[in-house]
User: Fold this.
Amino acid sequence: MPVLELKDVHKSYRSHLSIRKHWVLRGLSLSIEPGEIFGFIGTNGAGKTTTIKLALGLIFPDAGSVTLFGQEGVPAEARRRVGFLPENPYLYDYLTGEEFLDFHARLFGIDAPTRRARVRELLGRVGLANRGDRQLRHYSKGMLQRIGLAQALINDPDLVILDEPMSGLDPIGRREVRDIILELKSRGRTIFFSTHILSDTEMICDRVGLLVRGSLKAVGRIDELVSRDIPYWEVALQGVKNGNLPCGQVVSRRDDRLLVRVESPADMHRILATLNGGGAQLVSVTPGRQSLEDLFIREARASAAVPAESPERHAR
Amino acid sequence: MARALALNPRRGMALCALTGLLLAVLVQGRLEASRPAGAVHPLLYLPSGKYLRAVSLGFDGLVADMIYLWSIQYYGNFDIKDRYSYLEHIYGQVITELDPHYLDPYLVGALIMSAEARQPEMALRLLDKGVNNNPDQWIVAFEAGFLCYDELHDYKRAAYYFRRASEIPGAHPLVRRLYAEMYNRAGDKRTSLKEWSEIYDSSDDPYVRNVAWNHVHDLKVDVDLHDLKEAVSRFSDKAGRPPARLGELVTAGIAGALPLDPEERDYLYDARTGDVRYRGSLVLGR
Amino acid sequence: MLARINAIALNTFREAIRHRILYLLLIFAVAMISFAQILSLVTVGSEEKIIKDFGLATIDIFGVLTAVFIGIGLVSREIERRTVYTLLAKPLHRFEFILGKFAGLALTLVVNTSVMTAWFFLVLLLKGMFDANLAAAVLLLYFQFLLITAIAVLFSCLSTPILASVMTLALYVIGHLLWSLDLLAVRLTATWGKAFCRVLYLVLPNLGTFDIKGEVVHGVPIDAARIAWAAAYLVLYGSAILGTACALFERKELQ
Assistant:
């Protein structure tokens, strides 16, 4: 049974000055299974943060349903086992790190001794062990991100939702966050996070979802998504006299070395056939591996070509 | 100075600021000196307290205090000529409408009106208002009474106010005595005697009894002498001649019984002049 | 539920206490009460009335200012600064958040009012002018602060701090001018006009209920029933306001 399920969710905003609705999410359906790390990627303004806010009951869908831990409409109790880190968390800068975590722990009804222990443990885990007594107004951006993460884990949640968790962190910090996420997974927790940084997604996610302009263009395991795409071959040639090739795309040209990309075996054979007559030589043939980035860019481009504002488009 | 500016622009700016301030202060001083110490002050044009309540938002008492404080500075400023034009408006309509139970404006306002502006009737109007708004405060009626007594020499009115004041619980006992005395001043010695006698009878305080007795003594003499003289006159009219002795008044049926003086002696009678006299001396020597 | 409201309340209290503006206001208030002493030297007549009027007015004004200027930011600042997201992602009901914020400011006002009142009473005691009824006046002023806080919280949910402050202050002024509606009703001839005025008079917050400053300064005895009625009005009207705020906040989209 999925921990989080969105069914055919539509969400629109209406700006103050216009009467027209601007659709942010159109028919989004998504389900997050227990124990997985799900990466949510998408273009800017695609609706990732909106989806997360819908999942937490911070905003409400125009149509469709949101179910969290089996409870529809996200009542307060459903959030008991959830931890959330928003993008650019603004925190109470007059509180110290310890007071901040303690305050959030109280909201779960955790008793005082447990709270103290938990706060200390979490501060250590996010690398802020000695900074707990300083006011948050004196924290650096990286430190704020860490304390935000600590706050998200204060109740030892089963589902952790992170909106751009790596933002503001240096590579060391990002490695630490990745480690924390993997450690959570090893203990059977579910992690749902959104990010711009595709390499992080490729490294740790079980599944990804690609959101473009309010629709889910692709969802599934990375190897399935990427391998579904048509592979290509990169053919390196030497000594091609005239630049005319029967097919394929010239990727680069240096001196008389040519790198050509072909998309099907038939095309490859056609190119190889022209070589014999022209005095050109085959240097290498490399099968191309599609990356997530290619998928991303392709889907984004495809979507940009289609007119918007129609809520009938559904996710695959 | 240019070099200083060039060297340190901040110092230059500070210097400009200071100079600007000094010049502004000088100009302000010049402005104020050129304006005569006129009688016109914006606060004089305040609307009635009833309407001021709309802007005081529940702080009526405080606003009344502030206007009162201003008013005693204003009216105490002898440099301002003709400052009394709005006197009744300020005290009668502004301050006392805002806070009808604030006593100082009635008392001090009346003082200014009578002693400085020479308008005792205006003062009495103000004090009347004070009496009506504060029926539990004897001092206001007392002030009114005193004003009638001391300034206007209108003893009947004074008596009215003193009586009102004395009826209020907590009034100073002196007020009662003044009330009694007012009748005397007004010429109604009989009533005065009656009141003084009541005071004497109803008091336990030896001082009060002493004072009362003194008045009763003298008033009794005055009243008795008046009655006797009036009886002698009636006898003379009837019999065509003055009586030979005071006892004749009784036998002729003109008087019921001859009053004795406070020392229980007879009054002296001179048959030749028809004059009745008291053989002792008046205590209060009036 | 109470534990969560408590947590939010204490946090709100902590934020307010660490606000430097609060100390400025307090120092000002204490200075004003002391200033009353100086003013009283200028009067001809009773200085007691001046000191008492001034002291009560100071407590009144500064309490209202605190209630308004912290109150309007209670909800809107959290939304603006996005701190509300991490809070509402917890198993916290939205109405608990509102009530907690209100309770936190109520607690701050207790501290504020107590400090000002303590100083005021000290001055009076030293001058031998103390009157126990003044405590009743301050208590009713505190009820007023609470009602204004509730109104500020409501407007804080609805709009930006600037608009909220304008609307709350407007209601404060109206609340003290309701007596003029009665006057207007008398002058109007049409029955619907009179009825309308009457309805407005009853529905708008009647802040005059909490104003016994004049009576106390003039030594009029205050009976317990008066205080009880004022408390009842506070509880009922305040619940209505807070209930509306909670209802509005329940479905508010937190962008």
